[in-house]
Amino acid sequence: QQQVKQSPQSLIVQKGGISIINCAYENTAFDYFPWYQQFPGKGPALLIAIRPDVSEKKEGRFTISFNKSAKQFSLHIMDSQPGDSATYFCAATGANNLFFGTGTRLTVIP
Amino acid sequence: DAGVTQSPTHLIKTRGQHVTLRCSPISGHKSVSWYQQVLGQGPQFIFQYYEKEERGRGNFPDRFSARQFPNYSSELNVNALLLGDSALYLCASSFGYGTTYEQYFGPGTRLTVT
Hints:
The complex is a heterodimer. Chain A is an all-beta fold. Chain A has strands at residues 4-7, 10-14, 19-25, 33-38, 45-50, 56-59, 62-67, 72-77, 86-94, 97-100, 104-109.
């Protein structure tokens, strides 16, 4: 059973546009929600993370929005660039385990 | 500073064989976790080790085992390989274990079972 559900599976955005990736979870025991960026041939790299007592966190062009009551969180990439083209994974931690979503392949068109 | 390193980079094995994958954590990190990433999917947690003791185990069969050495490096062993074991195996290290510590991933070992 997928602990963290992620959508869309793929996303194509024009350069300068906003990329939005959504995730949902069921386990209210999760206590940390990171996002990872993965380029082909590389391991996932931590991008930004949020705790459930915070509704929004922004780091540069990347923003996480967190809705605890709806058990949903999303990643917004502002002013998307071709270099942002990668696979993005949301995740959730609990019980010393890190549960990943299924990934979103983002393509930013110049 | 060197990041998490893994060896080998690629590996081809035959069904029924055994494989050992190796991981060296970031200097100062005492926790190592292993993940399996099947093509097109997110990584799935296999094991976590901290201070040479197993601290967490995912839903994988007993054919999978691991250990951590005094220098905090780690090995993942898989016995009786199946075609379905073909995947990218990722190692991640962190200073401690538990949800408060961020994990840093290595580039992975691509295992192909034929």
